[in-house]
Amino acid sequence: MCDTPYKAINPGTTKIPVHESIGAVLAHDVTEIRPGEFKGRAFKRGHVIREEDVCHLQRLGKENLFVLNMSEDEMHEDDAAYALSNALMGGGVEIKGEPKEGKIEIIAERDGLLKINREALLEFNMLGDVMCATLHNNTLVRKGQSVGGTRAVPLIVRKDIVQAAVRICEKAGKIIHVREIRKPKAGIVITGNEVYYGRIKDAFAPVISNKIDKVGGEIVGIYYAPDD
After folding, report:
1. pTM (2 decimals)?
2. β pairing state of 185-191 and 218-225
């Protein structure tokens, strides 16, 4: 980068001309649209601008870019998101894909019961500049279902904040878990003369069977009894 001073737009970011950006680190994604062919990300935030990128960026209408200027005690939001998610995750959960706008999604690795350490999560969120949102504690979840997400709030976050968040997770033994559920076995007894004697069609067995099936259970028998 050249020695010419440019205006800082946000802490850790500076706006500079594209033709002087070689070696700088992009602070934002750059979208490319080719009608009928392609619409998506041409350059990812965090990309180091090369000489051959300059013409490409200019063709995309970019005359200026926002670039990062981080100190040793700061982290990019994507790096922070990885550190936070790895610290938050206990058994039965995993990361889905890469960060999007600094946010990482956490999904269930298996069917089970979502367990959240609510006290530790509150302490985590009270730090400021980092956050995590989850489904409610004791929610039944399916494999692949989103159970939470975490991110650093600013584009550039202080390392000591991220480190403090990681320590909270470690002290709690992780914050987000999906526990396996014991597979229940159930018998169904349906009472009533009208069903027992075949005067009406039973509508209860399918409803109850569906509920047992949703938690991976097994119906061992369906029985009918008269009113007496």
Report:
1. 0.69
2. parallel
